[in-house]
Write a structure and sequence with these properties.
Elements: H1 9-21, H2 24-31, H3 35-49, E1 54-56, E2 61-63, H4 65-88, E3 93-99, H5 101-118, E4 122-128, H6 135-138, E5 142-147, E6 155-169, E7 190-193, H7 199-207, E8 216-219, H8 223-231, E9 236-240, H9 241-250, E10 254-272, H10 278-289
Parallel strand pairs: 3-4, 3-5, 7-8, 7-9
Antiparallel strand pairs: 1-2, 5-10, 6-9, 6-10
Domain HTH lysR-type: 7-64
Keywords: DNA-binding, Transcription, Transcription regulation
InterPro entries: LysR-type_TF_proteobact-type, LysR_HTH_N, LysR_subst-bd, WH-like_DNA-bd_sf, WH_DNA-bd_sf
Length: 294
């Protein structure tokens, strides 16, 4: 088609928007021009075609038969232009990563800006749940699993970090008290429990006996909630050191006991042996295992 056979593209855009809204004013608002400009462009298009595309009614527009057919053709043409343009632009690969809510809020999210700066071509979808998601059925590309090392012929599992439990609290909670605390000095302190209930083991490691003393307890279903309560001065939380390192370094939390407990559990980065997107998955896996700083 010769360029002389093409109508004004601005006029065609004005017509297509007016055909959808059946109103010059609304079409003008969409296009960012005046109502008079839209009406003038549509009138110029009608003049160039030698036919009427709209019936002008008192409060609205009505497409003529020719206008209705032309509107459908123009709409499909615009859709093809949008599709063709999108095909020229590389779309970022989106990977889904399954993690626990505590790992997401206390480890992953603070580090995500660094990942995005290093891999702007990749997009991560975070699935934070205590439920163990499946790779293929749930569309998961990477998972961080807590517990014993995952095993399976179709899985790749790498140790991210071993769990090292530490009792933490706000510095204000220990104001006037001699730190570190001992197991025999827990009376009057609130122990903040999570769903893993590791306090009895920790106290046994600390004192050699299984005795929580006269301490009071508050229970949460997420470790992150217990950590947040500790930050608010509500008690002493037991958490993996990896989740509270930044708060300890900044002085928002302190090690209440000066003792840590090495756990028999750990966090592992798990991927399918044959991932959907091998190179992007390898890049995210390598970034996770580099244990980046916040």
């Amino acid at each position: 088609m010769k360029s002389g056979q093409l109508p004004s593209l601005n006029a065609v855009r004005a017509f297509e928007a007016s055909a959808r809204h059946l109103n010059f004013r609304l079409a003008a608002e969409e296009l960012g021009v005046t109502q008079g400009a839209v009406a003038q462009q549509v009138r110029a298009l009608e003049d160039s075609l030698g036919l009427k595309l709209f019936h002008r009614l008192p409060r609205t527009l009505a497409l003529t038969d020719q206008g209705r057919g032309y509107a459908g053709t123009i709409r499909r043409a615009f859709e093809l232009i949008v599709e063709g343009t999108a095909a020229l632009r590389p779309q970022p690969v989106r990977l889904s990563i399954s993690v626990t809510p505590t790992f997401a809020s206390k480890w992953l999210l603070p580090r995500l800006p660094g990942f995005s700066a290093f891999h702007p071509e990749l997009s991560l979808g975070i699935v934070a749940t205590d439920r163990i998601s499946s790779f293929q059925p749930d569309g998961i590309d990477i998972a961080v699993r807590y517990g014993p090392e995952p095993a399976g012929p179709q899985l790749e599992a790498d140790l991210l970090f071993k769990e090292e439990l530490v009792g933490v609290c706000s510095p204000s909670l220990l104001a006037g008290a001699e730190a570190p605390l001992s197991a025999g000095r827990l009376d009057g302190y609130v122990l903040l429990h999570d769903a893993h209930s590791r306090w009895p083991e920790f106290i046994e490691t600390l004192s050699g006996r299984l005795d929580l003393g006269g301490s009071r307890s508050v229970h949460f279903n997420q470790t992150a909630l217990a950590i947040d309560a500790a930050l608010g001065g509500q008690g002493i939380a037991l958490a993996s050191r990896a989740f509270v390192e930044a708060d300890l370094a900044a002085g928002r939390l302190v090690d209440a006991f000066g003792v840590t407990m090495q756990s028999d559990r750990a966090y592992y980065v798990v991927t399918p042996r044959k991932p959907r997107f091998p190179s992007p998955v390898a890049a995210v896996r390598a970034w996770l295992l580099s244990n980046p700083e916040v």
